[in-house]
Write a structure and sequence with these properties.
The protein is of the alpha+beta class. It is built from three helices and eight strands, in the order βαβββαβαβββ. The chain starts with a strand and ends with a strand. Bound molecules: zinc ion. Zinc ion binds next to strand 1 and strand 5.
Amino acid sequence: MKIDHLGIAAKSIEEALKFWADGLGLGLENVHTEVVEDQKVRVAMLPVGESRIELLEPISEDSPISKFLEKRGGGIHHIAIQVEDITAALARLKTQGVRLIDESPRTGAEGCLVAFVHPASTNGVLLELVESK
Ligand code: ZN
């Protein structure tokens, strides 16, 4: 397992990239941007070593990220851990009584399979499990 990415909520990806890409110096060359309709967000992935920063911008007012920004104004939204077999990981967590937001995987950015685990079971952190293609 490894940390696949850290999800950071931003009102505007363009604004956020001024710091993360230009200011910090991660650069724009390897930035991947796409809309994930299912989660009502536009995301930008910036590689940092073998992990990534995922900037999340809401594309509608009922996006979970809109609600998060209203409440907190930005910040770390979730941590994503890469697993080899997401279905097996979810089944294992379920038998342990872990509170899952997604009982079965859905399609996330870059066509990966993703599922969220409720913060009530993770010391207050929204956790995303990712199985890459
Ligand atoms: Zn994510």
